[in-house]
């Protein structure tokens, strides 16, 4: 703890000085949604033009509560969502999803800070566990946000507490975004927003004309809500077979913190960013033979990205080096090797209301010879290079009230694919309905998408927003 506190102090001191003067089943990070940080100053009390006041001019009491001027804001939605597998899976239930959810999003502005609270109340007929587990998102309550925001200076914004974090340039592909994901939600048919899981963190944003900095400290490691067999079956390398509820993955959570930093600036119409992360693999990437538990080895990531206009659309490039610190030479077959990851993407509106985006993603396994030499006999060998292509098509019809979308992943190296079709209809200002599916293709059970081929499902939902 002393070491992490010293690290936090050093990082903040390093950033503040110039600013004050200048004013599977280890899921790859590839497979973004989130909320942007508020501009500096929002959350502090606005000043009225000279002469305007809510005070009695004959009164000497100018201490009317700011709370009275900013009432509690409440919004949210109610939703019912159900889905079925399109084929039998002996390791899972036939119902892929069956739940009703009430989300309440509350915000209150005070004179010195803004308080945010977003919570989901859930009744789930598939996972009947009622005990609340906020880290895994289980039980009848999922706390999405519980934080306060304030600006101690014009060039600093701070957010403390539970929050949804995201950055990077990929579309449902993540390289430098090392914040918690919920892969179960993604594969069973929940709304795309639930791919992002909450983190308990301290986010500090520093702004200047030279560079902007986001510094995020997560005091206690927040793992992904990873595939463990409870809702989605997976390939179990120890059994060399597909497993599910018959073999739930049990993990040994590390006791440590995470630090993530982003330095970014806009040059004309282009945004350039540098990233750093020190913590652990977010999904299990190791195995302890003694305890029989999956582990989260130490990990550091260094990356960069560029995003801006290109031809008639928008292009982006992102890279990242994953330093697997517990296996720096790649000689430990029970821990994932270091990797280099690369992403390039392009998005353009082809015609009115029809948009297409394409991406190419690469995972390059480092120390590949050492990996092959230490691989246990009869184990399935990873490719040195894993290639992945994605395409998103979005069509708006009926005065943009009917949205047709398809997101497709295809890996030519693994010979597998994943399709996410969805149709969403906005009935009126409050009601909407949608149908969609998750379809996995692949001949080999040990490839990333191929292992999930018994989890194909169709789902439907109706939502009332307020």
Give an overview in words.
This protein is mostly beta strands and about 475 residues long. About 10% of the residues lie in helices and about 45% in strands. The strands form 3 sheets. It has an 18-stranded antiparallel beta barrel. The protein has a 3-stranded mixed sheet with strand order 10-14-13, with no helix packed on it. Strand 20 and strand 21 form a beta hairpin. The protein is globular, with a radius of gyration of 24 Å.
Secondary structural class: mainly beta
Shape: globular
Tally of DSSP β-strands: 23
H-E order? HHEEEEEHEEEEEEEEEEEEEHEEEEE
List unreliable stretches of 5+ residues.
1-29, 32-66
Q: Give the CATH topology.
A: Porin
CATH class: Mainly Beta
Report how far apart the termini are.
Answer: 43 Å
Q: What's this entry about, in short?
A:
The strands form 3 sheets. The chain has an 18-stranded antiparallel beta barrel. Strands 10-14-13 form a 3-stranded mixed sheet, with no helix packed on it. Helices cover 8% and strands 46% of the residues.
């Amino acid at each position: 703890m002393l070491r992490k506190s010293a690290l936090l102090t050093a990082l903040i001191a390093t950033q503040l000085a110039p600013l004050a003067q200048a004013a599977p089943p280890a899921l790859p990070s590839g497979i973004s949604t989130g909320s942007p940080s508020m501009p500096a100053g929002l959350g502090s009390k606005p000043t009225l033009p000279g002469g305007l006041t809510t005070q009695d001019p004959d009164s000497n009491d100018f201490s009317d509560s700011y709370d009275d001027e900013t009432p509690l804001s409440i919004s949210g939605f109610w939703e019912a969502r159900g889905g079925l597998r399109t084929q039998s899976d002996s390791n899972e239930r036939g119902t892929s999803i069956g739940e009703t959810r009430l989300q309440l999003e509350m915000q209150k502005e005070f004179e010195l800070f803004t308080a945010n609270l977003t919570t989901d109340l859930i009744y789930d007929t598939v996972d009947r566990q009622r005990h609340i587990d906020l880290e895994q998102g289980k039980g009848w309550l999922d706390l999405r946000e519980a934080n306060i925001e304030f600006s101690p200076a014009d060039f600093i914004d701070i957010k403390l507490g539970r929050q949804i974090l995201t950055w990077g340039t990929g579309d449902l592909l993540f390289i430098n975004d090392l914040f918690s994901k919920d892969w179960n939600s993604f594969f069973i048919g929940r709304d795309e927003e639930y791919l992002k899981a909450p983190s308990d963190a301290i986010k500090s944003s520093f702004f200047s004309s030279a560079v902007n900095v986001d510094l995020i400290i997560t005091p206690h490691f927040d793992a992904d809500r990873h595939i463990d067999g409870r809702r989605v079956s997976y390939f179990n390398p120890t059994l060399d077979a597909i497993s599910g509820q018959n073999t739930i993955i049990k993990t040994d959570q590390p006791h440590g913190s995470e630090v993530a930093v982003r330095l970014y600036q806009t040059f004309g119409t282009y945004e350039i960013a540098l990233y750093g992360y020190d913590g652990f693999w977010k999904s299990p990437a190791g195995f302890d033979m003694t305890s029989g538990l999956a582990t989260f080895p130490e990990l550091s990531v260094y990356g960069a990205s560029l995003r801006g206009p290109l031809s008639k659309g928008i292009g982006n490039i992102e890279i990242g080096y994953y330093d697997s610190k517990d296996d720096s030479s790649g000689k430990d077959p029970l821990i994932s090797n270091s990797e280099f990851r690369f992403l390039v993407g392009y998005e353009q509106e082809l015609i009115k209301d029809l948009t297409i985006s394409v991406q190419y993603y690469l995972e390059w396994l480092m120390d590949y010879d050492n990996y092959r030499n230490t691989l246990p006999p009869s184990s399935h060998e990873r490719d040195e290079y894993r290639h992945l292509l994605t395409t998103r098509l979005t069509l708006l019809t009926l005065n943009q009230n009917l949205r047709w979308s398809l997101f497709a992943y295809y890996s030519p190296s693994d010979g597998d694919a994943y399709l996410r079709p969805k149709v969403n209809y906005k009935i009126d200002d409050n009601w909407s309905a949608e149908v969609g599916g998750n379809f996995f293709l692949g001949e080999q059970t040990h490839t990333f998408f191929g292992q999930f081929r018994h989890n194909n499902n169709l789902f439907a939902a109706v939502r009332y927003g307020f």
